[in-house]
Amino acid sequence: MTIETIIKEKKGTIVDVRTTEEFKGGNVFGSINIALQEIDKRMNELKGLKQPLVLCCASGGRSGQATQYLMKQGIECFNGGSWLDVNYYNS
Asked: Distance between CA 54 and CA 75 in Å, rounded?
């Protein structure tokens, strides 16, 4: 399954790992905000979300870090890159 399919067919959850301030400045409709630095503290919440997770941020760097970490924790997830790219597929 591709990231595009997951987003377009709403088969998972979009998680934006930017800061709350960045998220408030613009985000993907229906996405949730869990900042990269909060991921470890919010693992139970992340595990309860509809998987796979599509992670996004400003450019793909932080979402890449989050993807690697969460995959090691057994969570099915993908790095969606920039939230603007994810938003393009969400229309």
From this structure: 11
Burial class of residue 4, CB neighbours in 10 A (0-12, 13-18, 19+): middle
Query: Do residues 56 and 15 touch, judged by C-beta distance below 8 A?
Result: yes
Which tens digits make up the pLDDT trace of 16-29?
A: 999 999 999 999 99
Residue recorded with tokens 């998972």: 12
49 neighbors 64 (Cβ within 8 angstroms): no
Query: In angstroms, how far apart are the furthest CA atoms of the chain?
Result: 32
pTM above 0.90, yes or no: yes
Sign of the alpha-carbon torsion through 24, 28, 33, 35: negative
